[in-house]
Design brief:
alpha+beta; Jelly Rolls; Serine Threonine Protein Phosphatase 5, Tetratricopeptide repeat; 12-stranded antiparallel β-sheet; 14 helices
Protein backbone atom coordinates (compact mmCIF):
# COMPACT_ATOMS: atom_id res chain seq x y z
CA UNK A 1 0.00 0.00 0.00
CA UNK A 2 2.89 2.38 0.56
CA UNK A 3 3.49 2.83 -3.18
CA UNK A 4 -0.17 3.65 -3.67
CA UNK A 5 -0.06 6.00 -0.71
CA UNK A 6 2.84 7.91 -2.21
CA UNK A 7 1.14 8.20 -5.59
CA UNK A 8 -2.05 9.49 -3.99
CA UNK A 9 -0.83 11.63 -1.13
CA UNK A 10 2.65 12.84 -1.99
CA UNK A 11 1.99 14.75 -5.20
CA UNK A 12 2.40 18.20 -3.69
CA UNK A 13 5.35 19.99 -2.15
CA UNK A 14 7.85 17.32 -3.14
CA UNK A 15 5.62 14.65 -1.68
CA UNK A 16 6.31 15.61 1.92
CA UNK A 17 3.88 15.70 4.81
CA UNK A 18 4.50 17.81 7.91
CA UNK A 19 3.36 16.42 11.23
CA UNK A 20 3.28 18.17 14.54
CA UNK A 21 4.51 16.33 17.59
CA UNK A 22 2.01 17.26 20.25
CA UNK A 23 3.69 16.66 23.56
CA UNK A 24 1.48 16.19 26.57
CA UNK A 25 2.69 16.44 30.09
CA UNK A 26 2.36 18.31 33.31
CA UNK A 27 2.30 17.17 36.89
CA UNK A 28 -0.27 14.58 37.89
CA UNK A 29 -3.25 16.21 39.51
CA UNK A 30 -5.77 14.86 41.96
CA UNK A 31 -9.21 16.20 42.70
CA UNK A 32 -10.28 16.83 46.26
CA UNK A 33 -12.99 14.19 46.33
CA UNK A 34 -13.53 10.69 45.00
CA UNK A 35 -17.15 9.56 45.33
CA UNK A 36 -16.24 5.87 45.38
CA UNK A 37 -13.70 6.19 48.22
CA UNK A 38 -14.73 5.91 51.89
CA UNK A 39 -12.18 7.03 54.48
CA UNK A 40 -12.22 6.90 58.26
CA UNK A 41 -9.46 8.88 59.99
CA UNK A 42 -7.52 7.13 62.76
CA UNK A 43 -9.80 4.11 62.92
CA UNK A 44 -6.90 2.30 64.67
CA UNK A 45 -4.48 3.77 67.19
CA UNK A 46 -0.70 3.40 67.14
CA UNK A 47 -0.61 0.37 69.44
CA UNK A 48 -3.24 -1.39 67.35
CA UNK A 49 -1.30 -0.71 64.16
CA UNK A 50 1.83 -2.19 65.75
CA UNK A 51 -0.24 -5.21 66.80
CA UNK A 52 -1.38 -5.72 63.20
CA UNK A 53 2.18 -5.41 61.87
CA UNK A 54 3.35 -8.03 64.38
CA UNK A 55 0.97 -10.57 62.83
CA UNK A 56 3.15 -10.63 59.71
CA UNK A 57 6.56 -10.94 61.36
CA UNK A 58 6.85 -14.63 60.49
CA UNK A 59 5.23 -14.34 57.07
CA UNK A 60 7.50 -14.93 54.09
CA UNK A 61 8.41 -11.79 52.18
CA UNK A 62 7.53 -11.88 48.48
CA UNK A 63 9.38 -9.37 46.30
CA UNK A 64 7.06 -8.37 43.48
CA UNK A 65 8.86 -6.35 40.82
CA UNK A 66 7.37 -6.28 37.32
CA UNK A 67 8.69 -3.16 35.62
CA UNK A 68 6.72 -3.71 32.41
CA UNK A 69 3.52 -3.61 34.46
CA UNK A 70 4.60 -0.73 36.69
CA UNK A 71 4.90 -2.76 39.89
CA UNK A 72 7.58 -2.67 42.57
CA UNK A 73 6.56 -3.72 46.10
CA UNK A 74 6.85 -6.42 48.76
CA UNK A 75 4.02 -8.64 49.94
CA UNK A 76 3.44 -10.75 53.02
CA UNK A 77 0.37 -12.99 52.98
CA UNK A 78 -1.43 -14.00 56.15
CA UNK A 79 -2.18 -17.76 55.96
CA UNK A 80 -5.83 -18.64 56.14
CA UNK A 81 -5.32 -20.64 59.32
CA UNK A 82 -4.17 -17.38 60.95
CA UNK A 83 -7.20 -15.33 60.00
CA UNK A 84 -8.74 -15.65 63.42
CA UNK A 85 -5.98 -13.30 64.61
CA UNK A 86 -7.47 -10.45 62.56
CA UNK A 87 -11.07 -11.00 63.60
CA UNK A 88 -10.90 -7.96 65.86
CA UNK A 89 -9.64 -5.91 62.90
CA UNK A 90 -12.57 -7.07 60.79
CA UNK A 91 -14.98 -6.24 63.61
CA UNK A 92 -13.65 -2.67 63.56
CA UNK A 93 -13.97 -2.51 59.79
CA UNK A 94 -17.56 -3.69 59.87
CA UNK A 95 -18.39 -1.15 62.54
CA UNK A 96 -16.82 1.78 60.71
CA UNK A 97 -17.77 0.80 57.15
CA UNK A 98 -21.54 0.24 56.96
CA UNK A 99 -21.35 -0.37 53.20
CA UNK A 100 -19.74 -3.76 53.90
CA UNK A 101 -22.11 -6.74 54.33
CA UNK A 102 -23.03 -6.56 58.00
CA UNK A 103 -22.66 -9.79 59.97
CA UNK A 104 -20.49 -11.46 62.58
CA UNK A 105 -16.76 -10.98 61.87
CA UNK A 106 -16.13 -14.72 61.77
CA UNK A 107 -18.87 -15.16 59.16
CA UNK A 108 -17.54 -12.22 57.19
CA UNK A 109 -14.06 -13.73 57.09
CA UNK A 110 -15.48 -17.02 55.87
CA UNK A 111 -17.92 -15.67 53.31
CA UNK A 112 -16.50 -12.39 52.06
CA UNK A 113 -12.70 -12.26 52.43
CA UNK A 114 -10.46 -13.27 49.53
CA UNK A 115 -7.14 -12.70 51.28
CA UNK A 116 -5.33 -10.71 53.97
CA UNK A 117 -2.07 -9.11 52.89
CA UNK A 118 0.61 -6.72 54.09
CA UNK A 119 1.96 -4.34 51.45
CA UNK A 120 5.40 -2.87 51.99
CA UNK A 121 6.73 -0.07 49.79
CA UNK A 122 10.37 0.96 50.17
CA UNK A 123 12.36 3.80 48.64
CA UNK A 124 12.07 3.52 44.85
CA UNK A 125 8.95 1.31 44.96
CA UNK A 126 5.70 2.17 43.20
CA UNK A 127 2.53 0.66 41.76
CA UNK A 128 1.20 2.27 38.61
CA UNK A 129 -2.48 2.65 37.70
CA UNK A 130 -4.30 -0.67 37.90
CA UNK A 131 -7.51 -2.39 38.90
CA UNK A 132 -7.81 -5.54 40.96
CA UNK A 133 -10.75 -7.18 39.21
CA UNK A 134 -12.24 -7.39 35.73
CA UNK A 135 -15.46 -8.95 34.43
CA UNK A 136 -13.69 -11.86 32.74
CA UNK A 137 -10.91 -12.65 35.23
CA UNK A 138 -12.88 -15.21 37.25
CA UNK A 139 -12.41 -13.31 40.50
CA UNK A 140 -15.14 -12.27 42.91
CA UNK A 141 -13.15 -9.43 44.47
CA UNK A 142 -15.29 -6.33 44.73
CA UNK A 143 -13.95 -4.15 47.56
CA UNK A 144 -10.51 -3.26 48.91
CA UNK A 145 -10.16 -2.31 52.57
CA UNK A 146 -6.85 -0.74 53.61
CA UNK A 147 -5.38 0.26 56.95
CA UNK A 148 -2.36 2.59 57.01
CA UNK A 149 0.20 1.05 59.38
CA UNK A 150 3.02 3.60 59.09
CA UNK A 151 3.37 7.04 60.57
CA UNK A 152 3.51 9.86 58.03
CA UNK A 153 7.02 10.65 59.32
CA UNK A 154 8.26 7.16 58.38
CA UNK A 155 8.21 7.77 54.61
CA UNK A 156 8.04 10.38 51.88
CA UNK A 157 6.11 10.15 48.63
CA UNK A 158 4.02 7.03 48.15
CA UNK A 159 0.68 8.77 47.86
CA UNK A 160 -2.21 6.36 47.45
CA UNK A 161 -4.30 7.79 44.63
CA UNK A 162 -7.74 6.21 44.47
CA UNK A 163 -9.55 7.42 41.40
CA UNK A 164 -9.42 11.20 41.43
CA UNK A 165 -8.31 11.63 45.06
CA UNK A 166 -5.22 11.06 47.14
CA UNK A 167 -6.23 9.07 50.22
CA UNK A 168 -4.99 10.29 53.58
CA UNK A 169 -1.96 8.40 54.87
CA UNK A 170 -2.00 9.07 58.60
CA UNK A 171 -1.29 6.18 60.96
CA UNK A 172 -4.44 4.13 61.51
CA UNK A 173 -6.48 5.61 58.65
CA UNK A 174 -9.01 3.22 57.15
CA UNK A 175 -9.98 3.28 53.46
CA UNK A 176 -12.47 1.29 51.40
CA UNK A 177 -12.98 1.49 47.64
CA UNK A 178 -14.11 -0.77 44.77
CA UNK A 179 -11.45 -3.22 43.63
CA UNK A 180 -12.38 -2.26 40.06
CA UNK A 181 -11.70 1.45 40.70
CA UNK A 182 -8.36 2.52 39.15
CA UNK A 183 -5.79 3.31 41.81
CA UNK A 184 -2.04 3.69 42.13
CA UNK A 185 0.80 4.18 44.61
CA UNK A 186 3.11 7.01 43.64
CA UNK A 187 6.87 6.57 43.96
CA UNK A 188 8.25 6.20 47.47
CA UNK A 189 11.17 8.63 47.75
CA UNK A 190 12.26 7.85 51.31
CA UNK A 191 11.59 5.34 54.09
CA UNK A 192 9.01 2.55 54.14
CA UNK A 193 5.24 2.46 54.04
CA UNK A 194 3.15 -0.47 55.33
CA UNK A 195 -0.50 -1.08 54.54
CA UNK A 196 -2.88 -3.85 55.55
CA UNK A 197 -5.04 -4.99 52.64
CA UNK A 198 -8.20 -7.01 53.17
CA UNK A 199 -9.68 -8.03 49.81
CA UNK A 200 -13.42 -8.65 50.05
CA UNK A 201 -16.12 -9.97 47.77
CA UNK A 202 -19.74 -8.87 47.62
CA UNK A 203 -22.66 -8.54 45.29
CA UNK A 204 -21.92 -8.30 41.56
CA UNK A 205 -25.31 -6.92 40.53
CA UNK A 206 -24.71 -3.47 39.05
CA UNK A 207 -21.01 -3.63 39.98
CA UNK A 208 -19.52 -3.61 36.48
CA UNK A 209 -21.87 -0.93 35.20
CA UNK A 210 -20.76 1.28 38.10
CA UNK A 211 -17.13 0.45 37.32
CA UNK A 212 -17.62 1.51 33.71
CA UNK A 213 -19.05 4.84 34.83
CA UNK A 214 -16.00 5.35 37.06
CA UNK A 215 -13.60 4.51 34.21
CA UNK A 216 -15.30 6.91 31.83
CA UNK A 217 -15.33 9.68 34.43
CA UNK A 218 -11.66 9.24 35.30
CA UNK A 219 -10.62 9.07 31.66
CA UNK A 220 -12.32 12.44 31.15
CA UNK A 221 -10.89 14.00 34.31
CA UNK A 222 -7.34 12.63 34.34
CA UNK A 223 -6.72 11.01 30.98
CA UNK A 224 -4.56 13.81 29.61
CA UNK A 225 -1.96 13.22 32.34
CA UNK A 226 -2.54 9.49 32.78
CA UNK A 227 -2.88 7.62 29.45
CA UNK A 228 -3.09 4.31 31.29
CA UNK A 229 -6.57 5.23 32.53
CA UNK A 230 -7.79 5.10 28.93
CA UNK A 231 -6.07 1.73 28.56
CA UNK A 232 -7.83 0.36 31.65
CA UNK A 233 -11.14 1.58 30.20
CA UNK A 234 -10.30 -0.20 26.94
CA UNK A 235 -9.55 -3.46 28.71
CA UNK A 236 -12.83 -3.23 30.59
CA UNK A 237 -14.82 -2.60 27.41
CA UNK A 238 -12.98 -5.45 25.69
CA UNK A 239 -13.88 -7.82 28.52
CA UNK A 240 -17.52 -6.73 28.17
CA UNK A 241 -17.46 -7.57 24.44
CA UNK A 242 -17.57 -3.96 23.28
CA UNK A 243 -14.71 -3.96 20.73
CA UNK A 244 -15.50 -0.61 19.09
CA UNK A 245 -15.52 1.21 22.41
CA UNK A 246 -12.35 -0.61 23.42
CA UNK A 247 -10.56 0.51 20.24
CA UNK A 248 -11.53 4.12 20.88
CA UNK A 249 -10.25 3.91 24.46
CA UNK A 250 -6.96 2.30 23.42
CA UNK A 251 -6.53 4.98 20.76
CA UNK A 252 -7.16 7.68 23.37
CA UNK A 253 -4.38 6.14 25.46
CA UNK A 254 -1.93 6.37 22.55
CA UNK A 255 -3.18 9.86 21.73
CA UNK A 256 -2.42 11.13 25.23
CA UNK A 257 1.30 10.29 24.98
CA UNK A 258 4.20 12.26 23.46
CA UNK A 259 4.76 9.24 21.17
CA UNK A 260 1.37 9.69 19.50
CA UNK A 261 2.79 10.19 15.97
CA UNK A 262 5.03 7.14 16.27
CA UNK A 263 2.15 4.94 17.42
CA UNK A 264 -0.03 6.13 14.54
CA UNK A 265 2.75 5.55 12.03
CA UNK A 266 3.34 2.03 13.34
CA UNK A 267 -0.34 1.18 12.79
CA UNK A 268 -0.13 2.62 9.27
CA UNK A 269 3.06 0.70 8.47
CA UNK A 270 1.50 -2.54 9.73
CA UNK A 271 -1.51 -1.80 7.54
CA UNK A 272 0.75 -1.33 4.52
CA UNK A 273 2.25 -4.78 5.03
CA UNK A 274 -1.19 -6.35 5.37
CA UNK A 275 -2.46 -4.52 2.30
CA UNK A 276 0.49 -5.76 0.26
CA UNK A 277 -0.21 -9.31 1.46
CA UNK A 278 -3.87 -9.07 0.46
CA UNK A 279 -5.23 -8.82 4.01
CA UNK A 280 -7.56 -5.89 3.38
CA UNK A 281 -9.62 -6.44 6.52
CA UNK A 282 -6.53 -6.36 8.71
CA UNK A 283 -5.24 -3.29 6.88
CA UNK A 284 -8.55 -1.50 7.43
CA UNK A 285 -8.46 -2.29 11.15
CA UNK A 286 -4.92 -0.95 11.55
CA UNK A 287 -5.63 2.17 9.51
CA UNK A 288 -8.76 2.70 11.56
CA UNK A 289 -6.55 2.78 14.65
CA UNK A 290 -4.09 5.14 12.93
CA UNK A 291 -6.92 7.60 12.20
CA UNK A 292 -8.21 7.33 15.75
CA UNK A 293 -4.74 8.11 17.12
CA UNK A 294 -4.09 10.90 14.59
CA UNK A 295 -7.56 12.08 13.51
CA UNK A 296 -6.22 15.00 11.46
CA UNK A 297 -3.73 13.01 9.38
CA UNK A 298 -5.07 13.16 5.82
CA UNK A 299 -2.67 10.51 4.51
CA UNK A 300 -4.01 7.83 6.84
CA UNK A 301 -7.58 8.68 5.84
CA UNK A 302 -6.80 8.46 2.12
CA UNK A 303 -5.16 5.08 2.67
CA UNK A 304 -8.17 3.90 4.67
CA UNK A 305 -10.51 5.16 1.94
CA UNK A 306 -8.60 3.12 -0.66
CA UNK A 307 -8.76 -0.04 1.45
CA UNK A 308 -12.47 0.38 2.20
CA UNK A 309 -13.12 0.96 -1.52
CA UNK A 310 -11.40 -2.32 -2.29
CA UNK A 311 -13.53 -3.97 0.39
CA UNK A 312 -16.57 -2.46 -1.37
CA UNK A 313 -17.51 -0.42 1.68
CA UNK A 314 -18.33 2.58 -0.47
CA UNK A 315 -20.06 4.57 2.27
CA UNK A 316 -17.07 4.23 4.59
CA UNK A 317 -14.63 4.97 1.75
CA UNK A 318 -16.46 8.15 0.76
CA UNK A 319 -16.56 9.29 4.40
CA UNK A 320 -12.81 8.83 4.84
CA UNK A 321 -11.89 10.48 1.52
CA UNK A 322 -14.05 13.54 2.14
CA UNK A 323 -12.55 13.83 5.63
CA UNK A 324 -9.06 13.57 4.09
CA UNK A 325 -9.81 16.34 1.61
CA UNK A 326 -11.10 18.54 4.43
CA UNK A 327 -7.78 17.94 6.19
CA UNK A 328 -5.62 18.97 3.23
CA UNK A 329 -5.14 15.82 1.17
CA UNK A 330 -3.88 16.59 -2.37
CA UNK A 331 -7.03 17.43 -4.29
CA UNK A 332 -6.12 15.78 -7.61
CA UNK A 333 -5.34 12.37 -6.12
CA UNK A 334 -7.99 12.48 -3.41
CA UNK A 335 -10.79 13.46 -5.77
CA UNK A 336 -9.67 10.88 -8.33
CA UNK A 337 -10.11 8.17 -5.72
CA UNK A 338 -13.43 9.65 -4.60
CA UNK A 339 -14.61 9.62 -8.23
CA UNK A 340 -14.00 5.87 -8.51
CA UNK A 341 -15.72 5.21 -5.17
CA UNK A 342 -18.83 7.11 -6.26
CA UNK A 343 -18.84 5.40 -9.66
CA UNK A 344 -18.72 1.95 -8.04
CA UNK A 345 -21.46 3.03 -5.64
CA UNK A 346 -23.72 3.88 -8.60
CA UNK A 347 -23.50 7.68 -8.34
CA UNK A 348 -22.53 8.46 -11.94
CA UNK A 349 -23.19 12.18 -11.66
CA UNK A 350 -21.17 12.52 -8.47
CA UNK A 351 -18.35 10.47 -9.98
CA UNK A 352 -18.20 12.68 -13.07
CA UNK A 353 -18.16 15.84 -10.95
CA UNK A 354 -15.29 14.57 -8.81
CA UNK A 355 -13.37 13.47 -11.92
CA UNK A 356 -13.67 17.00 -13.32
CA UNK A 357 -12.51 18.48 -10.01
CA UNK A 358 -9.55 16.08 -9.90
CA UNK A 359 -8.43 17.04 -13.43
CA UNK A 360 -8.88 20.73 -12.66
CA UNK A 361 -6.71 20.40 -9.58
CA UNK A 362 -3.88 18.80 -11.56
CA UNK A 363 -4.33 16.79 -14.72
CA UNK A 364 -1.05 14.90 -14.51
CA UNK A 365 -1.46 14.02 -10.83
CA UNK A 366 -5.06 12.96 -11.35
CA UNK A 367 -4.12 10.78 -14.31
CA UNK A 368 -1.37 9.10 -12.28
CA UNK A 369 -3.82 8.46 -9.43
CA UNK A 370 -6.45 6.99 -11.76
CA UNK A 371 -3.83 4.69 -13.27
CA UNK A 372 -2.63 3.49 -9.86
CA UNK A 373 -6.15 2.90 -8.60
CA UNK A 374 -7.31 1.11 -11.74
CA UNK A 375 -4.38 -1.23 -11.23
CA UNK A 376 -5.86 -2.22 -7.87
CA UNK A 377 -9.26 -3.14 -9.25
CA UNK A 378 -8.25 -6.56 -10.47
CA UNK A 379 -5.94 -7.47 -7.58
CA UNK A 380 -7.13 -9.81 -4.87
CA UNK A 381 -7.67 -9.27 -1.20
CA UNK A 382 -10.16 -9.86 1.57
Amino acid sequence: MRAVTLSLCAVAANGSWTRKLQKRGGAARACQEEPSLTSVAKAFDGDECARILALFEEAKEEVDRRDAMGISRRNRWLPRDKWDSVRWVVERMLKRLPELPQMDAEQFLERHVEFVLLHEFREGDFFDWHVDSKPDDGKMRTQNVNVVLSSATDFEGGALQVGSANASLQLGDLHAYPAALPHKVHDITKGRRYTLVVATRGTIEGYWAAALRDYERLARELGEEHPKLHWILGEHLESMDQPDGARRAFAASYRATPQKPQYARKFADDAAEKHAAGDLTGAAEDLGMATLVEPDDAEFRVDLGVVLWRLRDFVGAEEQLRAALERGAPAAAGRACLSLVLADAGDAAGAAAERDRAMAAGADDAAAAFEALEGLRGSGGT
